[in-house]
Design a protein that fits this description.
Helix content is 79%, strand content 0%. The chain has 335 residues and is mainly alpha-helical. Helix 4 packs across helix 13 and helix 9 runs antiparallel to helix 12. The chain is elongated.
Length: 335
């Protein structure tokens, strides 16, 4: 492409588009139609210049022009309660459902890792002595010890808020750091499973594994599922950098990134429920079976929410991405 010739041929159209945009809403019907046509042509011009003869100054000018024209043509839309309802009943569960091939294996392998760590610690006294002194281990694992009093050490409301904040931060880190080729996500997962495995191993060596599971399972089922979903989504985001599929790497990453942001909001709500259970149910005086039953019910409700509502929305074409009208324009590219 001869850039000078191309600019000379189309400059009048760009200037005319700029002139129409400066007039704002004071356009006749014919002028509005002309603005739409010029917007479409200028978007194509920008794409051709970017792919064939990129010039920083010209590209910047046309990018700004196309953005202004798009805002004028499409207008703006305010978020409404209908958007929030659609997100909770379709967008979020569909995104979780569509990423199940990532977070379900993540959950299985992570749980297996925690079990192996717990078995290793529980059956090797020398490993336990490397973790802490015998007297300290007894303080942690005895009846009324640190593992049990941890859940009642603070008022329920403030404890639930603290737990929710910490878990939401961990989930957000998994989602955001997935863009760094998955490595930070794997490290965060390992640290979480290591902490769980240490608790399993130490309490099982003291003959109190049932007590430990009675304290962890009520909130842990839902809480860990949310972490696994976040980790799986982060891994998927990182893999998109390696293999973007049929889309360009930029477009594929943008699509996955927008879905990940929505996932962060939805998982924050899920973790809020887990935090409430951990703050009010786990340290309560309810029988162990009742506390575990509450945790199982919360987990089953979430899985039904994902596989029923999410599966239905995903089969209808929902990806968890934002509405088409709210996305950045994707310009055609030259062959």
């Amino acid at each position: 492409m001869d850039l000078d010739v191309y600019v000379t041929a189309h400059r009048a159209e760009w200037d005319r588009l700029d002139q129409l945009l400066r007039r704002g809403g004071r356009l006749t019907g014919a002028e509005a139609d002309e603005l739409v046509a010029l917007y479409q042509r200028t978007a194509t011009h920008l794409s051709l210049i970017q792919s064939s003869a990129p010039d920083p100054l010209l590209t910047a000018r046309l990018t700004q022009l196309v953005a202004r024209a798009r805002a004028t043509v499409t207008g703006t839309r305010r978020a409404s309660w209908r958007d929030a309802a659609r997100f909770l009943t379709a967008g979020f569960p569909a995104a979780v459902y569509r990423s199940r091939r990532w977070w379900v294996p993540t959950a299985v392998l992570s749980t297996l890792l925690a079990a192996i760590i717990g078995w290793w610690i529980g059956t090797h006294p020398e490993v336990q002595s490397a973790i802490a002194a015998p007297e300290e281990l007894r303080r942690m694992t005895r009846p009324g010890g640190e593992y049990e009093t941890y859940y009642s050490s603070h008022p329920a409301a403030s404890f639930a808020a603290q737990v929710w904040t910490n878990n939401a931060q961990a989930a957000a880190m998994c989602l955001v750091l997935g863009a760094f080729l998955c490595v930070p996500v794997l490290w965060i997962l390992f640290l979480n499973m290591l902490n769980l495995g240490v608790g399993i191993g130490l309490m099982s060596s003291a003959g109190r594994l049932d007590t430990f599971l009675g304290l962890v399972l009520p909130h842990g089922l839902l809480e860990l599922t949310a972490v696994f979903v976040a980790a799986g989504t982060g891994l998927r985001l990182g893999w998109t950098l390696i293999d973007p599929g049929p889309l360009s790497r930029r477009d594929a990453l943008a699509q996955q990134g927008r879905a990940a942001i929505g996932m962060a909001i939805g998982l924050a709500l899920v973790l809020f429920v887990a935090g409430v259970i951990e703050g009010f149910v786990t340290p309560s005086g309810l029988p162990t079976w009742a506390r575990i039953a509450i945790g199982i019910v919360a987990e089953l409700v979430f899985l039904a929410y994902v596989y029923v509502l999410g599966g239905r929305a995903a089969r209808a074409g929902d990806t968890g991405d934002v509405e088409t009208t709210d996305r950045s324009a994707v310009l055609p590219t030259a062959a």
